[in-house]
Each structure stands twice: as C-alpha cells, then as structure tokens.
Design goal:
binds calcium ion, Spore Coat Polysaccharide Biosynthesis Protein SpsA, Chain A, UDP N-Acetylglucosamine Acyltransferase, domain 1, 7-stranded mixed β-sheet, 23-stranded parallel β-sheet, 458 residues, single chain, binds uridine-diphosphate-N-acetylglucosamine, alpha/beta
C-alpha cells in the first residue's frame, strides 16, 4: 500500500506564522499524528505533499523519517491548485501496483482501525471513501448516491439545494486503485466554483470506467474532523484529551475530573493511581502502583515508584522518584534527579542532577544541585549547594546520616562525612569530617552596656 498525506494548504484561518500541520495537538504536531497512524499500517511508500510554510514542513518530515522504520518522501506542490493537483505530485513517489490511501495532514485523530476497514473495503480494485453521516454537513463535499451506489462527490460551493440537503459527507480520506490514478488525475478539470482540480472528481470517472466505488465509516465523527482554525484545534484537543482520560479510567486510574487532565505523550499507570485536577503529563511518564498526584502538577519524562505521593503544585522533569517518597507541595525536581525510597522533598525545594538515597529529607526552601546525598540525611531549611563558580560546576557529597543545619552553604567541591553535623549558618568550604560537629559561625558575643540609639530632637 501507498500512503499520500496532503499538507500543502496554507491554513490561513490559523492566523499563525507556523504552518497549520505543525501546530501541536496533545504536544505533537498534527502532521506527526497522521504520520504515526500511517506508519502503523506499514505502508510500502509514504509521501507528504507540502507547499505553504517554506522549509519548515519538509525539514520536520525529514527528521521524523530518520526516526522511524518507514521512510517518508516529500513532494512540493507549488502553486496549490487543489486536492487532485496535490495528489499528482505524489505519482513519482508511489508504487503503481499497490492501492493508495490519501490522508490529510490536518485530520489528526483517524484511528488505524477505521483506516484498516477502509483498506479492506477497497481491496485491490475498488475506490473506497471514508464517509460520515453528520447533522451539520456545511462546507463539506456531499456523497451523491443513485440506487444506493455512490456516483459522485459534489462540493458545497458547487452543490444545488437538493445536494446540499445530503448529510453523508466526504471525509476526504480515500483508497484509490493506483493503476487508474494517473489517467484520472490528468483528466481533471477546474471548471468549478473554486477553480481547483478536485480529487473528488475522480469518483465520477471511476463510475464511468466501471470501477466499483464503495464506502466505509469511522467509529466516531471526530476521527475525520479537520483543523482549520484555533477554535477547531482547541475543540479537537479537548476531544482527544477526553478520549485519553476515558481510557485511563477504564484501566482503573482515578481521575477527580476527566475533563481536567492533559496528557501530551504517554502516561503509564499501575493499579490504584489517583490524579487530582489540573495536571499535565509530557513525554513518557510512569506512575507506579498506588501513586497519588496532587492538583496542578506538571510531570515531564518522569518515573514515580509505587506508593509515592506528589502533593499539589510540583514540577518534575527527567526525574526518578523512589517508592513511598513524598514530594511537595511546591517542589521542583529538575533533570537528573534520582530519589531513593521514602525521600521527602518539601515546599520550595529545588533538586537538580542529584542522587538522594533512601529516607533522606529536605523539607523546606533548599537548593540541592550536582550532589550525591546518602541515606537518612537531614537537610535543614535554607540549605544551598553552591555548585557553580561562574565557570564550572562542582559536586557536593553528603554521606549517610549527616545532619545539615539550617541556612548552610556547601561550597562545592566539598564532602560532608558520614554522620557529620553542620551547625546552622555554616559556610562549608572544606570537607567536614565524619561524626563531628563542624561550624563556621563567628562566636556569638553580647555587648555589655550597649544602648539603642534614640532620635535626636531638633
Ligand atoms: C476537501 C474535499 C471535501 C471534503 C473535505 C473534508 C476536495 C475537492 N474536497 O475539501 O470533499 O469534504 O476536504 O475536509 O477534495 N491541500 C493540498 N493542496 C491543495 C489543496 C489542499 O495539499 O492544493 C490539502 C490541504 O492542506 C488539506 C487537504 O488537502 O490538508 C484538504 O484541503 P481543504 O482545502 O481543506 O479541502 P476542502 O476544500 O475543505
Ligand atoms: Ca479543510
């Protein structure tokens, strides 16, 4: 099979400098959704027709082509003279012996299962169209049938009143026997209301040639919904997110409100995971059994092990959280953070590129960056690892059972030995020996006979 994806249109109604098909839905460009679905069908040839938007579309496609098993060709359509004219550009890139599936780069949510049904309906020698009966068919091509058989497609702008009353619409997605395609496309005329070469006109040609024209239907209307404006993009985003939420609920995840979750990637959940409102998941996020995520958290490429609790308003990115750990509220775990079992990271604590072993705690207002922290360490409020001298980053090592007093600065590279205690307010510039109290505070003095100044009377 060949797949041709039409993506040359300009998408004027998006009111954006970014080509329409590169706008993200669930964090992934529209065109990438279509390409991923196309690839799931293992086509022999896959070709994207581009036009508007300069090099942005073909360069994105080339990068995706290198990532996957199925290589993607691109073909330029310049100027854009209609959907039929767009498919002509694909002819040198496809195999004439195999059927061709035409998809639109701005119709992101068609499922592989629906396309599979269409492909089966087409077989080797039929023209098959994905159609939907919809209450409001306005603006779309209508499927004209005689005695139940499809005889042609007529565009809204070319339709008479009786045709406009037809509710069965052309999704635009079709499977065409490629051996006829060249002839049909070269026979297209543009003497219609829009002065375009319509791909849909091949239907009447197929009928005239005695090639059977059949249809298949998607499981839901949103599968064929296209994006022409930010309004439609937002509607489809919500639809897609609701689909994801429903599938999470079906797998046993508790969502306090399925309308208030955003998954922009892959969210994998163990049993009895609970997610409060307003959370965003990006990239690949894995939540172990019994994990709870509080309201308004953002998790990016992160793994949270069983029984851990992420309290409200946390931001976690490229991080690993150990079993039964407690994070937040208001904590930030930056890339390279790896926490062991039962680690507590409290409010306004930032951790970056650091390992913190089991049962250690940093409960308040701290920065732990480029550090290796042992187990059962207590990091007091206001502790800062001074990891950056303006040019280079250095590591801090804090061994097991150390106690870091509040408001301490650890000037890296520096090591706090096992079981060491640092007095509050220490600025540690040399290693602190194991098991001892180290303190860098000036001795406290009390000034005898000192009096508070009084205001001089004028
Ligand atoms: C097309 C169909 C219509 C169908 C509707 C579904 C035709 C003539 N009409 O109408 O029957 O109901 O889609 O949404 O096919 N494109 C190009 N090059 C072009 C023109 C379009 O690549 O020269 C691409 C667009 O980027 C888009 C797709 O083809 O991805 C559809 O184009 P659009 O202009 O939206 O088609 P419609 O007129 O809406
Ligand atoms: Ca359209």
């Amino acid at each position: 099979m060949n797949v041709v994806i039409l993506a040359a249109g300009m998408g004027k109604r998006m009111q954006s400098a970014l080509p329409k098909v590169l706008h993200p839905l669930a964090g992934k460009p529209l065109l990438r959704h279509v390409i991923d679905t196309a690839r799931s069908l293992s086509p022999k040839k896959l070709c994207v027709i581009y036009g508007h938007g300069g090099a942005a579309v073909p360069s994105a496609v080339q990068a995706w082509s290198a990532e996957g098993e199925v290589a993607i060709d691109t073909a330029l359509q310049q100027p854009q003279l209609g959907t039929g004219h767009a498919v002509i550009q694909a002819l040198p890139h496809i195999d004439a012996q195999a059927p061709t599936l035409v998809l639109y780069g701005d119709v992101p949510l068609t499922t592989g299962a629906s396309l599979q049904r269409l492909i089966e309906a087409a077989g080797d020698d039929k023209l098959a169209i994905l159609t939907v009966v919809q209450d409001n068919p306005f603006g779309l091509g209508r499927i004209v049938r005689e005695n139940g058989n499809i005889v042609r497609i007529v565009e809204e702008k070319d339709a008479d009143e009786a045709q406009r009353a037809i509710k069965e619409i052309n999704s635009g997605i079709m499977v065409i026997p490629t051996r006829y395609l060249d002839g049909w496309l070269n026979g297209l005329q543009n003497n219609n209301a829009q002065g375009e070469y319509y791909l849909t006109d091949i239907v009447a040609q197929a009928v005239a040639a005695g090639v059977p024209v059949v249809s298949a239907q998607p499981s839901a209307e949103w599968e064929v919904a296209g994006v022409n404006s930010k309004v439609q993009l937002a509607e489809l985003e919500r639809r897609h997110q609701l689909n994801i939420a429903t599938s999470l609920l079906e797998k046993g995840v508790t969502l306090f409100d399925p309308a208030r979750i955003d998954v922009r990637g892959e969210l994998v959940c163990g049993r009895d995971v609970t997610i409060d409102v307003g959370c965003v998941f990006e990239g690949r996020v894995v939540l172990g059994e019994g994990v709870t995520i509080g309201a308004h958290c953002v998790l990016v490429n992160t793994e949270v092990a069983a029984g851990a609790q992420i309290k409200p308003f946390c931001h976690l990115e490229d991080a690993i959280v150990g079993d039964k750990s407690q994070i937040g509220p208001y904590a930030r775990l930056r890339p390279g953070t790896s926490l062991g079992e039962d680690v507590h990271i409290g409010n306004f604590v930032e951790v970056k590129n650091s390992k913190i072993a089991a049962h250690s705690k940093a409960n308040h207002l701290s920065y732990v960056g480029d550090a290796d922290v042992g187990s059962r360490v207590n990091i007091g409020a206001g502790t800062i690892t001074c990891n950056y001298d303006g040019a280079n980053k250095s590591r801090t090592t804090i061994e097991d059972e150390a106690f870091i007093g509040s408001d301490t600065q650890l000037v890296a590279p520096v090591t706090v030995g096992k079981g060491a205690t640092l007095g509050a307010g220490t600025t540690l510039t040399k290693d602190a020996p194991a098991g001892k109290l180290t303190i860098s505070r000036p001795k406290q003095i009390t000034v005898e006979g000192w009096k508070r100044p009084v205001k001089v009377k004028k």
